[in-house]
Amino acid sequence: MASSVRAGRRLRRALRPGGELEAARLPRELRARLEAVLRSKKAGEGEDPRPVVPFRLLRELHEHLREQGSSVFLHELLEGSEIYLPEVVRPPRNPELVARLERIKVQLANEEYSRITRNVSCQAARRDGTLADFGRQVRSVKAVVISIFNFIVTVAAAFTCTYVGSQYIFSEMAARVLAAVIVASVVGLAELYIMVRAMEGELGEL
After folding, report:
1. What is the 3-state secondary structure (H, E, C) of the chain?
2. Cα separation, 132 vs 124, whole angstroms
3. In the prediction, which pLDDT does 105 show?
4. Which long-range contacts (CB under 8 A, 24 or more apart) does 45-51 make?
5. Rounded distance, CA 46 to CA 196, Å?
6. What pLDDT score was predicted for residue 125?
7. Domain coordinates of the chain in residue numbers?
8. Neighbours of 195 (CB within 10 A)
9. Which residues touch 158 (CB under 8 Å, ≥6 apart)?
10. Which Pfam family is one of this chain's hits (predicted)?
11. CB atoms within 10 A of CB 68
């Protein structure tokens, strides 16, 4: 937080002989403190050499000028001055805290790596390897073949039974064949519906 200013050239010259504050009849203590601050130069390498004046001292100067009814105003004296913002010195980090943060980072990285590679581990490869996939495929093909065979047998049996049984109803062969085709078609559609539903269930489990 700013609490001082870098004194500009006008403020530094105001206390010199013939300066603007010469006729302001400053108290001896206030003048001495201002002169001491303006003479000090605490500058390191590459730092601004202008002296630093605290706000508190400028506030006292402003109150005195206002009480004296001086024609010199503080904002005029501060022309060319800049607010001084001291460099913030960051405290050193706790080595134990740094080490703990590093351990947490490593732990999180290991957990993320384990989560990513969980599905490609050796055990998973052995469990879900080519033999298991081949076994599932064989079972699926076997189930499809059995379903198709049952469908053909069921339709053929329905056609045969209807054709043979319809001889007691129809004397003409064409009527018997038509009745057998109709019954076989109905049975085939029903069987096909059941087979499709069963296959959908098996695909949903895979």
Report:
1. CCCEEECCHHHHHHCCCCCCCHHHCCCHHHHHHHHHHHHCCCCCCCCCCCCEEEHHHHHHHHHHHHHHCCCCCHHHHCCCCEEECCCCCCCCCCHHHHHHHHHHHHHHHHHHHHHHCHHHCHHHHHHCCHHHHHHHHHHHHHHHHHHHHHHHHHHHHHHHHHHHHHHHCCCCHHHHHHHHHHHHHHHHHHHHHHHHHHHHHHHHHC
2. 11
3. 93
4. 48/6, 50/6, 50/7, 50/8, 50/12, 51/6, 51/7, 51/12
5. 85
6. 47
7. 4-84, 147-205
8. 16
9. 180, 183, 184, 187, 188
10. Vma12
11. 13
Banded pLDDT at 42 (limits 50, 70, 90): low
**pTM passes above 0.85:** no
How buried is 170 (Cβ within 10 angstroms: 0-12 exposed, 13-18 middle, 19+ buried)? middle
Q: Which of 75-79, 88-92, 105-109, 132-136 has the lowest mean pLDDT?
A: 132-136
Contacting residues for 198 by C-beta, under 8 A, at least 6 apart? 147
**47-61, 125-139, 175-189: segment of lowest average pLDDT:** 125-139
Instruction: Tell me which of 95 and 89 has the higher pLDDT.
Output: 95
Q: Which residue has the tokens 């003479």?
A: 39
